[in-house]
Amino acid sequence: MGQTEGKKRLGRFELRVSDDDPDVAYVRLPGHPGETCQMSKSVRLTELLGTYAGPEVVLDFDPDGVLVGIELLA
User: Which residue in 26, 21, 23, 47 sits closest to 37, CA to CA?
Assistant: First the structure.
């Protein structure tokens, strides 16, 4: 995700809303490695819960398997 229109710091959490698409948001969790990192693994919530029918959710993990970010697509 590029620059952000809306950015909120919530303690050690950060919510970013895309400038290009207001229907895309990203939550950075504690331990997120930063702006230019590549996640070790990204998993769509539908891959974990086949019956999930809500907005698209992508879970980003670091190389140690720690959840560090969540992308939300409305």
Answer: 26
CB 41 within 8 A of CB 53: no
15-58 pLDDT, tens digit each: 999 999 999 999 988 877 776 556 689 999 999 998 999 999 99
pTM across the whole model: 0.74
3-state secondary structure string, the chain?
CCCEEEEEEECCEEEEEECCCCCEEEEECCCCCCCCCCCCEEEEHHHHCCCCCCCEEEEEECCCCCEEEEEEEC
CA 6 to chain centre: 15
